[in-house]
Design a protein that fits this description.
single chain, about 450 residues, alpha+beta, Beta-lactamase, 2 domains, 8-stranded antiparallel beta sheet, 20 strands, about 25% helix, about 25% strand, globular, hydrolase activity, hydrolase, Serine hydrolase
Length: about 450
């Protein structure tokens, strides 16, 4: 596979992969790295039956399936078929979460049990839809307080039913038509297709294996049914870094990546967006999802800011450590991303250029500068403070794209000679000098003493 990695980098990556497979006794393991849409590295260890795993070898990906469900729900929202604030019971009535908004199910905030009623769902044949829905009763709600993070496989079984009902087709068919086929992910399937890895449990105290079952999860399939390959998961990583292929708008993908739930309290190193796991690691902000089913472990993690991602697939029930982040760290250490060359811009208008520089919100200096993509950024000049980017609207106003001022309108008020006098940002008045007496500062101004 084409790659420009240095031999020393490739060896370091292989060493980390080999240590994981050997030390943790993983029957087979394969991993890959992508950057800027290009596959940098793929390698495998161990054996699937008698052969080394390849980019085309299927493994079960478990809860990575949930990321596809979330994309299908957001597509429905973007088409105007639902709102995330709508009550779930408007579309799939008759369960204990009739009154919960759709977004809570996506973000694991609904209060539902982590597992569905009945036997261990990952190891037995699943319920048909109506039977599954009948089990999501009061016994499936967990205690107060509400609206806190509690991971729920049950919620994604329900979201699969929402997709199927609004589309009028089976979930698997909707997924194939709307996501997998458009992205060319032909080796991602609900059932295994050769070549595929069998699932194994490794005895904790002996080097022997036990086969794990791979049942059809029925109505719970959206929580973890899919099988896939490193090749297809690399395409999914490219999706998560912005190559959405028309399946989803970049703006909606960004929305999915915003923190909604926090998994680890005050530390906030792990959390959830809308169907996506979020992590902060060594200055990186990662999005993706892990996956586990009996006999399998998997992970996909993308760094959208660096257009970089990692995937691993393994056929073992337990034992793989922080392999994904370690591989990203090795890549960063050995071959950090080379930033693009800087070139001066010739497309900044005089009207935009004269907005740049220091502005004062009361006594606090803020800096307004033009970004390479034509947006402007307003941020505290020194130290912590609010930062937002703004996009020109064509009528002399600017709209906030992120941060505290997301969606707010920035209006430039000009003097008689046309020069910018002050900025009006949703009642905040920013002036060229602290508390400029010539500007309408709310509450008025007094002389400095």
């Amino acid at each position: 596979m084409p790659s420009e990695l240095l031999p020393t980098t490739r060896r370091a990556l292989l060493h980390r992969l080999a240590v994981e497979q050997s030390r943790n006794r993983v029957p087979s393991l394969i991993a890959g790295l992508v950057r800027d849409g290009e596959t940098l590295w793929v390698d495998g260890r161990g054996a699937v039956r008698t052969e080394r795993p390849t980019v085309d070898t299927q493994y079960r990906i478990g809860s990575i399936t949930k990321t596809f469900v979330a994309v299908l729900v957001l597509r429905l929202r973007d088409e105007g078929l639902l709102e995330l604030s709508d009550r779930f019971g408007e579309y799939v009535p008759g369960t204990v979460v009739d009154d919960r908004p759709v977004w809570q199910l996506l973000a694991h905030n609904s209060g539902l049990s982590s597992e569905p009623a009945g036997q261990w769902w990952e190891r037995v044949p699943g319920y048909a839809p109506e039977e599954f829905l009948s089990t999501v009763d009061e016994s499936q709600l967990r205690g107060e307080p509400r609206h806190v993070f509690h991971y729920s496989n049950t919620a994604f079984g329900l979201l699969g039913q929402l997709v199927a009902r609004l589309r009028g087709r089976e979930f698997d068919r909707v997924l194939r038509e709307e996501v997998l086929d458009p992205l060319g992910m032909n080796r991602t399937t609900p059932e295994p297709v050769e070549p595929y890895a069998p699932g194994w449990a490794v005895h904790p105290w002996a080097d022997v294996l036990q086969p794990e079952p791979a049942e059809d999860a029925g109505a719970m399939a959206p929580a973890g049914q899919l099988w896939s390959t490193v090749g297809d998961m690399i395409r999914w990583l490219r999706f998560l870094t912005g190559e959405t292929g028309g399946v989803l708008s970049p703006e909606t993908l960004t929305e999915m990546c915003q923190p909604v739930s926090v998994d680890d309290g005050d530390e906030w190193t792990r959390g959830f967006g809308l169907g996506l796991q979020l992590a902060r690691h060594r200055g990186r902000r990662l999005v993706g999802h892990g996956g586990s089913m009996p006999g399998f472990l998997a992970n996909v993690l993308a760094d959208p800011a660096e257009a970089t991602g990692v995937v691993f697939l393994a056929n073992t029930t337990s034992g793989v450590g922080p392999l994904a982040t370690d591989l990203l760290d090795i890549l960063e250490e050995h071959e950090p991303r080379i930033p693009p060359e800087w070139h001066p811009s010739t497309e900044v208008s005089a009207e935009t250029l004269e907005l740049t520089g220091l502005w004062y919100w009361g006594p606090i200096p803020h800096l307004l500068r033009v970004l390479p993509d034509g947006l402007v950024e307003l941020s505290a000049w020194k130290g912590p403070g609010r930062t937002s980017r703004f996009r020109a609207e064509g009528d002399g106003t600017w709209v906030g794209l992120d941060g505290y001022h997301r969606g707010e309108v920035l209006r430039v008020v000009r003097s008689e000679d046309g020069s910018p006098h002050w900025l009006d940002l949703n009642t905040f008045v920013l002036t060229r000098s602290p508390y400029d007496p010539q500007a309408p500062v709310p509450g008025g101004t007094r002389p400095w003493k």
